[in-house]
């Protein structure tokens, strides 16, 4: 959801000047019968700057240099030179003719041969040498890096400029670059520049980037935008088999599996920087797969890439992105060293892929220089530091940037900073920004206080009936060292008020030492997840869903108080020590948590029964999340949406007698989640949870296998289980879910255009209950443990209308359980790239 709101921000707030290029050309390549020629090669004459047309023969090409002609070629057609009378040339119709003699070109039509193709012989040489080129041939390396990220609205017409949306902000159009040919305009909404020192050690397989300076304008204060930008442009290596963009794995044209995915054509050869290079054009063998079209130049002796240009095919199964264009240039430092010096990536975000649809260009330009090699650093140098530094320390003067940026900004780019900074003070802009911010964060911003989250305002369950919740938090800025937040709720059936309040204070920024505490009195569906925390404001969807598939009256009154201290001694490794006290009591007349304090005997057949639980507990937990990226350094940070592993361990100790606590026990819980990207086959998530409680405990403290009685898919729950269907004091669960990303449906002609995506999964659980815990059960809930392994499996279809997914789930065991759900249908909404 966060990503779609961020993209929406780009569509709503698009403002200012022109694109950098001096020469711009777009058009379509046709044959004599006016049929489009896909994957035609279009190059500025006298340069190596070019692009390959898409499946519809359309292309767009730009350059900061001035050119007067294009060279257009395609396998099976004669080359053609096209004059450019203006710097800006749009909607060219370029017609290619068939050659008069067959020896004019090497002809490849349709799918190219996998045998006797000289392009493939060269490709195999690239595979052999890819670890013997560039930075890989040195033990250590270091260099300076300059990165510039821009976002620009494109395809803006005069009607849009006159829209009431821009009332009070008309001044932004004073500097718009509008084409006299098409009326297209380019309006920036964001620009950011950064300087880094980069270090790497190929022996240790370690890298490190130290930021030296940063300058940002536009949405520089919005966490969601910053997180989106950081995740959007993740690093990649063109030599890798698969390249990750927008959380998807694209097959690289240099991949070892490329022969099965791409067509390759040896198109040309020429000297580039005094090095003889071959030019190879590539384009996909099939539609709807995550592939590119383009060409590259490769040296004839080192088989190192000198230059590569490529764009994502229009039919690729990816949403909201009309085009992705990548260009990399490598510098020859000596006979065998080819170093990446320029990396340019442009993404065209749009609501649809129609040619004239409005969209947003996201552009990243990365430059490298001052390479040094074999300067060894100790291994401790590469240790990641905890993110606690405010980006304000990287703020530098305009004079610093004039002296240190690798390439000068043009006059239009220089104007972006001033114009966008002025825009922040315009009342109309603030109003629009507030609306987008509410949708993105879920909070309504006031002066130093946020109201929300608004998406939790309404809920329903059988005990409270309709539930109304109001809450808020302190908010002075994204890097607040402390935060207070709370809520109050009211149930219209039980006529009771509930509340929760918590506070956090970061007392040491370097190690992120945080003290926290809070109290909550509410009604909750306990057992909605196995691996639990003592977050006093946490609430499961199970007790708040407006609609459920069955009774959700097995709810508990909970009064929870906790205090904790946590720290991050090393990057992405957290340690927390906490104390908590809770009371638990059934909130429903049809459900009890009763237990025996004295077991029945012949003299006392009824025993002694107690209905509430009072429990003090101490716990220590460890969490390790390698490769997790975050934004900000305050007491609360925003995660960047890139997949990362999570390993969580929690040890809990029941403190009998402390504050009249009822039970003594020890509990250990482990949680492990591992995302696995399997190239073009998609991505899997493997989740393992296991836990055991040592000691005698009642139902309220048992490990309940989480069911799902909502209509929605909820991670780490079992879709075919009801609440409290299985209860354990020791358990192990396994889940495997796989997203094929449309790989299978793309092979079915009638389904190919739908761009649906396939999901499969299986999950199971094994658990037991000790005789001692069975003996003290006096509740109305029978104890059943999955001693014979409960499992279920599911298949799903996602990307329906780009936002909806439906899952079909089947129970694989315990089929004869009374009222068993043998089949379930669940849905979910989300943002799908």
From TrEMBL:
Keywords (A to Z) from UniProt: Signal
Pfam families, alphabetized: CarbopepD_reg_2, DUF5686
Region forming the signal peptide: 1-21
Highest taxon of the lineage: Bacteria
Name of protein: DUF5686 family protein
Gene source species: Flavobacterium flavipigmentatum
Lineage, uppermost ranks: Bacteria, Pseudomonadati, Bacteroidota, Flavobacteriia, Flavobacteriales
